Amino acid sequence: MEGPFTAARLPLESQLERTPQDASWLMPLMLLFLVKQLLLVAIIGPFTGHDEVDHFYYIQRLAAGEGLGVVGEVMLPKETKPYRKYVADYPNNAEVIQPPLYHALLAPISLLVPRGVETDLYALRLISVVIGLAAVWLAYLIAGLVFPGAPLLRAGVPVFVAFQPQFSFEAAIVNHDILVIALFSLVFYLTLRGLREGFSPRREFLLGLVVTAGLWTKTSVGLVLPVVALGVWLGWRDRRWSWGDRVAAWHWLAGSLFLTVVLPLLLVTPWFIRSFVLYGDPTGSRRLQEIPEYGDQAQGYWDMLPDREFWRGRLEDFWGNYGWRQVPFDPHVYRVVWIVWGMAAIGLLAFLIRALVRRRRKAPPLLSRYQWRAIGLMALSVVLLIYGVLYVGTIQFTQSRFAFPGMIGFAVLTLIGVDRWLPERLRPLALPLLVALLMGLNVLTGLRFLIPFYYGPGGGAAISP
Amino acid sequence: MRPGAVAALVAIVAVAVLLIGALAVPFEVRNSAPFGFNLTLDAERGIAVSGRQVVPNYPNFNRVDLDLRSYTMGDSYDLTLYIRPDEPGAPPPPIRTIPLTVPASQIFHRKAPFASPFTTVRFPPIADSAGQAYEVWVERGTRNRDDVVAVWSFKTYSQVTGRVVLGALLSHPAGTAAPSAVRVGLALLLLGFVATFGWLMAGLTTYALRWNRGSQRRPASR
Q1: Contact pairs from chain A to chain B, CB under 8 Å
Q2: Which residues in chain B touch residue A327, judged by CB atoms under 8 angstroms apart?
Q3: For residue A424, which residues of chain B lie inside 8 Å, CB to CB?
Q4: Residue A186 near residue A227, CB atoms below 8 Å
Q5: What tens digit of pLDDT does each residue of B206-215 get?
Q6: pLDDT-derived band of residue A297, with 50, 70 and 90 as boundaries?
Q7: Model confidence band, residue A8 (pLDDT cutoffs 50, 70, 90)
Q8: Does residue B221 lie in a domain region?
Q9: Which range of residues forms the domain containing residue B175?
């Protein structure tokens, strides 16, 4: 029975639609992702992931019970010297400026690994693989929730995420970014579930806890808060606004926003206060600006936005820059990827224009209201994360990986664009082609650039010890 | 044809293409270098020079990509790329001499943001190049003797098959612990990679065909 404190529930279409046939591709996809990631863990030279040295020794520090530490006081051990090119602020460990949840979770695992630093590193990389698997699974859940009847999106979104080269890289190194991606995706999934089925206090509390976990992993997760707030507001508007008692309705909204937005901010406040006391601002960004060669590259928003070289760099980061940018693709490979991606963007634009025209003509809509809202929230999250990339650019050298928490959103928007280029009958048949193309990209770049960087009959590993 | 048979065919063809493409077809691999390229910087003198030593880590060294920058506008530039073994003692004669004529617009120092700065030069492969040091440099032709042309950096490539690349990975896996066990593990993972790729292609094909044949409900909104 529905009442003021009971979430209204829509039919669980996503669950009904999750037929056994999904298993025919989902199981091999998950297994292929696992195998690919294990190969990447082995291929990528030790400590050559971005900030991997810092994150690893942050975990070691917590495992040894040495406390959180302060940037400028925490030095990396001498044995890290061969990897100094992979460290932003050598010999300082600049990552101790980050909230410690990821590192605290991995510290006990590190203690369980009995043999040596390298073995410990590879063991911790395996945790990233598991978290990456969770992110791919969430991509599947989100795609199935929003697009149960569109096979190209339903299967294509998890395929896109699983094969995106730089997401794969994140899921094969020791870095808290992979946990940020997974938690951001989980927040998104819970928000979309709530929007569809209603936000019960229990769901809102759970959502708030996941946001809190995200904030304690990396403060940039705060960029998801407007998305959560908008999702909660839309859900409230659908179900509570029509109540006769408007005061009770407003109270409900206030309670919902408290649980999902305010509570996480309150729970992460101790960390903000600590950073403010130590570094002069709640996120420690001023201290990051002081890192030589990184802080020097800070620019204003209006310098970055029209700068085509800046955007070329971000596109390169998004698709292929392994090993702390030391292993890029070649220009023509980037170009092919961008052309394909650009065509998807044109398809997305065409879809939006068509939807607007149909709306003006009062023709049946292309998507349900729920689907439009979900796409809107995804687009908002992508825009906010791109803003995050730009914001970091005002502090120091920036990179596209700061937008990777929105990878599922990128995948959805891309595949809507691809979907529009194909006749309806051919859309499902494009799935094997999509896998073949992404597989080709991974294999080609792996064999031409990534493996030869580290391994070769004549030596390889030009800068890895 | 039944969906299962089509799916099996797709999987077999996909795996065959992957195996042939990855193991038997020669392609150019980029030799190991930070950021993919070698800077032509003489650090002691603090100036860019027109060449440097390179050590390809693969056999069949066959390509150099030059980041050339000209500072004067002409029609074209006559250049020559030289490669010779970098050995102690008297320098041996070049083993590759490749004359080039490049359009001035292609190497003008101001590049469009999305333009590739590199000019590709291919030459007959040097078979036993793996681990050997070579001196690679560029000289201006007589016609452009007084023009300023700088070589900012270059990339080197070798033409090999994926077998050589994967062989290098399996011969010297990363890490110091139990290389034999790691090698076996890597080999199994590579086999698993190919097998699961085939499985995924089959699964997606079955899924797509069944969907197309209407065995799943389609939403009205689509």
Answers
A1: 220
A2: 36
A3: 222
A4: no
A5: 998 888 776 4
A6: confident
A7: very low
A8: no
A9: 3-24+169-212
The interface predicted TM-score (ipTM) is: 0.90
Quote the pLDDT of residue A436: 94
Task: Tell me the two tokens of residue B202.
Answer: 């089959």
Question: What pLDDT sits at residue A13?
Answer: 44
In the predicted structure, residue A106 carries a pLDDT above the cut 90: yes
Q: Which residue of B has its CA nearest to A16?
A: B217
Token look-up 């994140």 returns: A170
**Number of other CB atoms surrounding residue B186 within 10 Å:** 19
- The string of pLDDT tens digits covering residues A361-400 is 999 888 999 999 999 999 999 999 999 999 999 988 899 9
Contact between chains at B205 and A432 (C-beta distance less than 8 A):
yes
Q: What is the pLDDT of residue A344?
A: 94
Based on the fold, state whether residues B128 and B181 are members of the same structural domain.
Answer: no
Q: Minimal Cα distance from A44: which residue of B? A: B174
Q: What are the domain boundaries of chain A?
A: 28-445
Co-location of B176 and B76 in the same domain: no
The residue to which tokens 């039944």 are assigned = B2
Measure in Å the smallest separation between the Cα of B45 and chain A Cα atoms: 22
The answer to whether the Cα torsion of A23, A127, A122, A385 is positive or negative is positive
Cis peptide leading into A91, omega within 30 of 0? yes
Query: Rounded to a whole number, what is the distance in Å from the CA of B68 to chain A's nearest CA?
Result: 15
- Of B149, B94, B36, B33, the closest CA to residue A462 belongs to B33
Q: Residue B160: name the closest of A447, A42, A460 by CA.
A: A447
Do residue B190 and residue A39 have CB atoms under 8 angstroms apart?
yes
Number of H helices and E strands in chain A, helices first, is: 20, 2
CA-based nearest residue to B73, from B43, B45, B109, B97: B109
Residue range A174-216, pLDDT digits in tens: 999 999 999 999 999 999 999 999 999 999 999 999 999 999 9
Note whether B98 and B195 are same-domain residues: no
Q: Does B205 sit within 8 Å of A365, measured CB to CB?
A: no
Smallest Cβ–Cβ distance between B162 and the set A335, A447, A453 belongs to: A447
